[in-house]
Amino acid sequence: MSVPIIDLFAGPGGLGEGFSRVRSVQFEIAVSIEKDEMAHETLRLRAAHRALQRCDKATAETWRKWDAIIESEPWNIVFYQLRESGDPAITQACIAADREALNFELGPEARQLASSMIRDRLAVYSRNGGLPRNAVLIGGPPCQAYSIVGRSRNRGTKGYAAEADHRHFLYREYLGVISEFEPAVFVMENVKGILTSRVLDRHIFETIMQDLKRPSVSGLSGSGVEYVLFALSATEGVLVDPRPEDFIVKAEEYGVPQARHRVIILGVRKDVFEIAKCVGTLVRSRPPTMWDVICDLPPLRPRLSYRGKGQTWLDAFHSSFFDKAVKELKGSGREVESAVAEKLMAVRDKFRQRLLDPGFGGDRTRLNAASKDRLPKRLADWYRDRPLDLLTNHESRAHMPTDLVRYLFAAAFGEVTKASPRLMDFPKCLLPAHKNVDPDNIGDSIFKDRFRVQLADHHSMTVTSHIAKDGHAFIHPKPNQCRSLTVREAARLQTFPDSYVFLGNRTSQYTQVGNAVPPLLAQQIAEVVGDLLKRAKLA
User: Fold this and answer.
1) How far apart are CA 413 and CA 373, in angstroms?
2) Total domains present in the chain
3) pLDDT of 184 above 60
4) Smallest Cα–Cα separation from 485: which of 452, 508, 457?
5) Could you tell me the end-to-end alpha-carbon distance of the chain, in angstroms, rounded to an integer?
6) Residues 109, 112, 118, 124, Cα dihedral to 10°
């Protein structure tokens, strides 16, 4: 029995991808809705990819044609070229994707449109002309109004009032779909800041919880259906009516190579729960390390930004800036600083001898056989969901010459000390010329870890959308690459498979990756949902 999925505020599709990777239950994304045009392009392309994977007529030649178009066509016309490829299987997959992935903004003005589209897509799964009783709703309202950073920014905006910020109430669009379509289960995801966000001196999370339990009471249409809410991270059994903090799921505790903490609410329709009797929880597992996840990706040479003023990337390591840093580190008289200085010079020597001279990479490149064998087997099965030689979204961004040296220092410091440096660890000459950084009073700096290297033998920090602005907090762990992470490396930390192609400009690609739910975590949530539906005889 197929289980239809409704995916709201879908982004590039991380939650939906996780549900689609489950094999014990036949989850199918009936409809996904996303407002951002570039994220929607990614979402639609992935929908076509899944449709092609399900197609019996997709041959090896079909996939070669698919990859050839992905490899050669500009991002903005990739989907069009696939649809017009002349291969019937690809064309049909694109038609199915156009029906599945929709591009419009959810809100009061679009409620009728959303209702009509969802009802139309669910009709395929209905046996008697009514609504399917086993549908699953997934997604989460945009988090800018709830996040701590967003709230801090809002407080600095003249005339800002939380009660007038429509983003606080976008959850009602999610709520309206629950009320109208009465899914058997819903999964709602958001940032931790939603637990402390307040509107009119009341925690918004309290209101959301009450509304989710009885959607129609909130003033939206519906038959009075009720839900029981569960926390997926319970250590023993299931927590009924949990405390707000019990809904926090720490992704690194479930095999995701990233410290990502999010609020995830599992809602089960009361009649479904009465049949199923119980709800499972996520099973803890250790995360792979940063290097486990990216070790097979081709090494890249950092690009130099326009501020390089005609310099080559090698010039940055033969500058007075570099020499001052080495001299200051050696002159400290401390063993750690001296070891870091030695590593800086050793890497420069290898650069000078051209012993380390990889290319810049590219949005689309071909993997060689050697690189494909380096990824650990348990990870290879996840990241390589089909035979693939093409690697997308793996290109070094451009950095200032001074930042190249800072990145080299941070990575070298990480290898020597097994920790990321704070500003007080940097040689004074490497401190950024920033209004919040006083070289003579570094302890008062606001962002003491402005430059962060992701350590090779540890899982990474949270990949956020801020990675789109600069790469200072996501420095590659190997000194000989001295650059920030590529979109593909960030996607690996988010557990997107390599066949997942992110469309749009690179800034948008980073934003899409940073905002997504890790598919590996989503798959584990889907397994819990699937087990529940099977016990309730709905799957």
Assistant:
1) 29
2) 2
3) yes
4) 452
5) 5
6) -160
Picking from 490, 500, 493, 486, the residue whose alpha carbon sits closest to that of residue 388 is 500
All residues at 6 or more sequence positions from 90 whose CB lies less than 8 Å from its CB, including other chains: 48, 52, 58, 62, 65, 66, 82, 83
Q: How many CB atoms lie within 10 A of CB 56?
A: 6
Residue 191's nearest CA partner among 233, 242, 241, 151 is 151
Indicate if 283 and 294 belong to the same structural domain. Answer: no
- pLDDT score of 148: 45
CA dist., res. 192 & res. 195, Å (int): 6
Mean confidence (pLDDT) of the chain: 88
pLDDT of residue 370: 62
Residues 505, 456: contact at Cβ < 8 Å? no
Q: Which amino acid is at 521?
A: L
Res. 40: pLDDT tops 80: yes
62 and 106 housed in the same domain: yes
Confidence label for 333 from pLDDT (cuts 50, 70 and 90): confident
Q: Are both 155 and 54 inside the same structural domain?
A: yes
pTM over 0.85: yes
Which residues span the domain enclosing 365? 290-515
- 307 and 278 housed in the same domain: no
Q: Are 106 and 9 in contact (CB under 8 A)?
A: yes
Provide the CATH number for the domain around residue 12: 3.40.50.150
